[in-house]
Amino acid sequence: MIQTILSWSATVLVVAVSVFVLSRRERSLATIVLGALLILCALLEAFDTLAISHSADLLIWKRAALLCEALLAPVFLLFSLTFGRQYSWKTFPRIAKVLLCFSPLFLVTVFAAAPENLFYSPDFSTEQMLFLGNTGFIFYIALFVYFIVALVNLETTFRSALRPDQWNLKLTLMGAGSILSLFVFYYSQGLLYRSINMNLTPLRSLALLVAAGLFGYSFLKRSNAVRITISKEFAFRSLVLAIIGGYLIVLGLLGEGLQHFGEASQQVVFLSVLFLGCVFLVALLLSEQMKRKIKVFINKNFFENKFDYRQQWLEFTSQLAAVRNREDLEKAILSRFCDTFGMGGALLFLYSGEQDIYYNKSSYQADPTQVTLSSGNPLVRYMIERQWVFNAAYFEAEVLDANRSLFAESRITFVIPVFSGLEMIGFIALMRPLIADEDYTYEDYDLMKTLARQAAVALTSAQLSEQLAEVREMEAVGKVTTFIMHDLKNLVYSLSLLTANAHDYIGEPEFQKDLLEALTNTVTRMKSLIAKLKEVPDRHELHVRRENLLELVKETVASLKSGGITVSGINVEACIDPLEFAKVIENLVINALDATEGNGPVSVEVGGDEHAFIKVADSGCGMTAGFIREHLYSPFKTTKSKGLGIGLYHSRQIVEAHHGRIEVESELGSGSVFTVWIPTREIQS
What we know:
It contains 24 helices and 16 strands. It has a six-stranded antiparallel beta sheet with strand order 6-5-4-9-8-7, sandwiched between helices. The chain has a five-stranded mixed beta sheet with strand order 11-13-14-16-15, covered by helices on one side. It has a three-stranded antiparallel beta sheet with strand order 1-2-3. The chain starts with a helix and ends in a 6-residue tail after the last strand.
């Protein structure tokens, strides 16, 4: 009795809500479909109630109920595709089009199939169970698939809507979702047990009552005039739900097959398959390659545009904003490119103005390469001249031949230029596509260039920040110098007193003892000051005259009073400041001695014609290419435990003031060669 009252109450309320929805002035295809959907739900509820209460006419009422179920499948699917969306037949997903085209087969099955092939019930009046025939089993499997697809579409609609739109759509989607969820549970019995348990109809009645209330309140109090565009990311999440739904269907089919096993083994087999299936699903959803294949499938079959550009831009900028240092920034840029374009690894090359080359600065899921590209390399010229992405599949013979080692070693597929204004500050090499046969179009290339421009801004900002930090450090050193100069002045004053008294008392033993003690204390204090001071001298006016470089080198080396240094070369004259240039020679020779732990050998060679050179070579510890590019001439960067890190910085300033340059060749463990080049003729500043 209670079951009957509940069913008829649900029927009446659903019909009332459908009339209210269809009588509104603001009608659309979605509201018309919703009204038809509610009427079909009401009729299904009424026919099933009559079948239960009039079991003698079970065949008549149940066939009518089957007719309602046959219509519910396409109507529910159409509602899920139109409600809250910008829709047209062209924008419908391909799978939805296929399902809508095949939906008339439900009606054909209901009218053409023999009743015994659909269902049978030996004792329906007492157990209210319908056992499915072969045709009925297939019918409900198809119905189950339609309901899962509709549920996926509703979930996608809600997730893709903005927060205010979600508020307007939520109650209607909750109502439709509750009916669909109940139907999925109700008809899953047909898959697992090849039967329909009509004792569960009160649950359906309750779901209809709740849904009718949600529909009525939503259309009465809220606006449903929302039209959204589906996001790629939410479509991916919904596809995951579809995969899980498909897995449940497989479980249902397996439940059908378990009827052929013994009763004792069914539970073990079922749980084993369930466990293995869960492991498979976890592995599937964690696979980057599978995720990429799913996204490619969505892009090719579900959407007109391949990328959600707004989403890509927000994710990229958010990822860059979260990093804390230069190294993390470079890794974040490369990881975003790999994730976006489905690549297995990436390399970042940056331009070095000192050496006029592009070198590998960072890598992501790839081994770093020692290959460098000069500014005249065909690949570099290609990107600068065309300002376009290079695809290895273009088979540009000149580019590939000149960079065969790079492409062969790293399996590079795309090379993306990174421009800051008109200057190419570097490029990104993408390698090892996750899907070998994936098609890349102009959309991919446009997004690559767009993200590269944003990466250029981030890299340039990081470089400027480092330079600003260096300037601030230099400024701090200048402030410290003021206080240290005061201490040095006091030390000089003390020494001047000692020298003044020495003329009168140098012969007295007690004065000699005091003199040695004072000198020792002064030396100790001066060493302490030197250890604290990191003075970087500014450029100042040079006192230039023509000097013999070979003689200057010999004099400077002689003043060091160290063995293991050989000087060779020819007499070459140049316009230099001898005092300043002696500092350069001294710095280079002392560094060479330090690299060989003071033992040498160190060779100094002088030569040249229009440009003179001084070459200092050692066979010491050497330096890495990374240290040379990034730290060699930076102030306060040194590989020596007691060094200040300002010798080479100061030397380069002096050489550049003479319109010269310093070149370096070094290999870790094999020594270094520093060559100073300066013009032999006088150059006007």
